[in-house]
Amino acid sequence: GYCLISVLETMKTYSAEEGLTEEAVVTKLRICRYHHLYLHSSLRNNSSGTSRWGEFGEGGLLWGECSGKSFEWFDGNPIEELLCKVREIYGLEEKTVFRNVSVSLEGRPQPLYLGTATQIGVIPTEGIPSLLKIVLPPNFGGLPSLYIRDLLLNPPSFDVASSVQEACRLMGSITCSIPEFTCIPAAKLVKLLESKEVNHIEFCRIKNVLDEVLFMGSNAELSAILNKLLDPAAIVTGFKVEADILVNECSFISQRIAEVISLGGESDQAITSSEYIPKEFFNDMESSWKGRVKRVHAEEEFSNVDIAAEALSTAVIEDFLPIISRVKSVMSSNGSSKGEISYVLIDEICRGTETAKGTCIAGSIIERLDNVGCIGIISTHLHGIFDLPLSLHNTDFKAMGTEIIDRCIQPTWKLMDGICRESLAFQTARKEGMPDLIIRRAEELYLAMSTNSKQTSSAVHHEISIANSTVNSLVEKPNYLRNGLELQSGSFGLLRKEIESVVTTICKKKLLDLYNKRSISELIEVVCVAVGAREQPPPSTVGRSSIYVIIRRDSKLYIGQTDDLVGRLSAHRSKEGMQDATILYILVPGKSIACQLETLLINQLPLKGF
């Protein structure tokens, strides 16, 4: 028979398959991708000792496969000589060791014949559709599809095949959610790691694979599948690893990656923002590097960027905005007919009318002048203006400076930054000669008025609190709504369990009612299953009706029904902001029942506070 030796430079592995037929060699050459092809000189030596490849091989399958390709002849020990050539081509050191991952053909069934593999399209052939594309799901491609093809062309031993079959059987009967099963080409990954060119995206993908192994190892149903998959994995990788060792190593590496790589949602990775600088500017400057590694590993660089951003914002506010304000005032419709800059001086604005409404009118005037970029000075004793929700961008508040002399507050007649709420009315009245009796009574009235104002304010707030409590008690709300707390990871878990409990109760009651009315033949068990971020429903949901509730991170719910839960969930998660959404689903007997439960949940969940 023939011997086919394959060397994978990136993985530093080689395999030698012996005892192959000519047809088997040709089949493998057609399905594998290789950069260099070497033929051993023994192939062209016929019984007479001549060395003419054409005379011996012409017309044969192997000759026909190789004659149209670029190849080289070599002599000597096949494995040693081939490894030497690989080291030479890729510039590897002479002591570089290649690991033998050869799999014995003993006990393995015969592979597909070349003609059969060609006729069913397993080997890509022009004009012949691939059977795999027909029997496998539409979204089933890439590495998984290649693995199925290799199983057909290179059938494993009976023990390994039994493990694959048992894993499939277990997968078809589980009820829990399953991981996404991230697929990464091993050779590409090793090459990037060796050259230290792995970016944060690849590290996140590696962590996804590790976390999926941990997820399977921690779940009773999935751990049995994980154990069964170790045998076929050993055939592909050449490594025989025990499940507990695999889980421990994955846990260690996942933690190491998490210590370095930013995994999203970290507040110290947020793009800088400024009220006066377009967000697109900071996004262009920072989006290419923020969110890659944790800040602790580049604290100096992050700090320098923060300082530079603050300096830029200050420069814009102090140097650029005043220019813009003056330009706006020139262009303002509130200016003169010639468009000169408006300069306004107002003393005691709106003092000749009722205080509350006068305060609001004054606030509106100031807001408008600020908006058009007017320059001016306005004085007032209407201190309530400082409590109005004014939209001011270019206005500075100034106050009259004061100092205490002989226990009396005296004005300094100098302007200072800040808000002034004290007019020194009593001191001024005394200075102007108003009778002391009147001033003391005025002080008593002022004190009484201030006390009543505080008590009224407290009573109003207390009354509102009681009213809100009464309204909330009419409809029982989840804890996170009653407390008004922002959702955190812990509270999100509580919310999910609360929704799960309510949904299960509503569905059980409805199905029992339908059973009593003989609308359904049997009373099914209601099982609410959660599918978290980067998880998907198990295969048992395929082709079955279900209702589902999607819990978004903003606590909003989406309720739906479908006969294709995997496809529907994939469609939802393709939308912006829905990638990490959690889903709860319940399998039900038929689409009609699913539609009824969907309508019921849409109407009932708001009454439960959701």
Automatic annotation (TrEMBL):
One of its GO terms (biological process) is mismatch repair. Pfam families: GIY-YIG, MutS_V. SUPFAM superfamilies: GIY-YIG endonuclease, P-loop containing nucleoside triphosphate hydrolases. Keywords: ATP-binding, DNA-binding, Nucleotide-binding. It comes from the Eukaryota. One of its GO terms (molecular function) is mismatched DNA binding. Residues 311-447 form the DNA mismatch repair proteins mutS family domain. Signal peptide: none annotated. This is DNA mismatch repair protein. It comes from Oryza sativa (Rice). The lineage of its organism: Eukaryota, Viridiplantae, Streptophyta, Embryophyta, Tracheophyta.
